[in-house]
Write a structure and sequence with these properties.
Blueprint: H1 2-20, H2 24-34, H3 37-43, H4 64-78, E1 80-82, H5 89-104, H6 116-120, H7 125-135, E2 140-150, E3 168-174, E4 185-188, H8 209-217, E5 220-222, E6 229-232, E7 237-240, E8 250-258, E9 272-274, H9 281-294, H10 306-319
Amino acid sequence: MNQSLSDKHQAALAQLLQQARWSDAEIRTRLQQALSPDYWAALNPQLAVNQNEGDIEIERPVSELSEREQWCAQLASEGYFQTAPLIAAPVIECLRQGIEVLRAAGWPPLFAFIYDECWRVMRGPAMTGLLTAVLGAGYQQMAQVYTFYVQAGGSGWFPHVDYGPARRLTLWLALSDATLENGCLYLIPRHRTPPTIAENFSKLESVSYADLLTLLHNCRAVPAPTGTLLGWGNDLIHWGAHARPMAKPRISLAMNFVAADFKPAASDLPLLLDARQLPTLAQRLRIIAHAIEYARDYAPWTHKYLDFAKRLIAAVEQSVP
């Protein structure tokens, strides 16, 4: 009975997602818009598109030595770190406004990565210093990005770990207050996780009662004020909680960085970025399209855009000499 009911729910969900996908005519229109930097500039004039020469204040001043040492120490001992609000409020407000404009125009929030500011928030001196300290000089950025927009009653991604190389760091930026009400991140500190649980997390079919008690007892909520950065390694169990029905949206960005000696496997996205440079518009479009495909198992809403993502990749490859 339960299996039959589950099958019916899955079939109904698949049908709804299929009906919600963009039509061929809309995809053609969206492709023309996506490939035009003028379109994106007009849509969000407060944000920049490929203006690499811009000089804007991204971060508040930090005590480079003491604060960075604290972040590195927490990362080494607990598997994650959290800053005080770090990114300048005007930058945060421009990005948050830009994401709302994108949503109103029918674009997924992931298209925030069209804009320079989305990339620059992880390229200020404090984060550059931290990434160099953790990953070494010449670290690279992986082509895995995401924009979270958790609405009332929704949730972030289910519990998981970011599998990949040992010298990998995920950075997550709060563009709005992440609270207990709107589904902030939860995690289990690395030093509180039973041995072998994290490294085998996706393959586990069961855990012992003793390990279950340990995991539940050490679960930690991580509220994050606007402008706060969180970072974690590839072995941290974490997830986005469910937001209450009347909660304000939780908006955030996430990116991944790896050491310079990282050797991508066949399953990795075919693009690593020089973390000192901003990607071109063509690179950004490819990254966004790949991110839509990557998130299909974590965020069902991305199924609506899968056809468009495939055609966007093809259109970008045709447009680049």
